[in-house]
């Protein structure tokens, strides 16, 4: 494993361990946690580190299956992500069990090889179902 892969793996591990510590402490900064998880995910997409991407999700979960479809689509269409920037706008804890978080994010730019566009997006609210610090499922928030 090269240095970049180790760095990405350690970031994923730190996010998961931070989650575990957070459950024991009710003062968890869920916005910072969500931002770290998204940053780690974005870095894995840019580097093509599918192992780190998989480490962020529960095995055989809906989230893992969705990532597998994304990876397959990227490979089939020869899509290479050069950079991606996502800002977490807000996080609301819907349930402490799991926990379940409503995460509002804004993709400020995704830059693809051979494409001059920045691919910015509207703010999205997604309900994150977490299990032991890893994503199990992601759905639209109930307000959408």
Automatic annotation (TrEMBL):
Q: Can you tell which superkingdom this protein's organism belongs to? A: Bacteria
* Name of protein: Uncharacterized protein
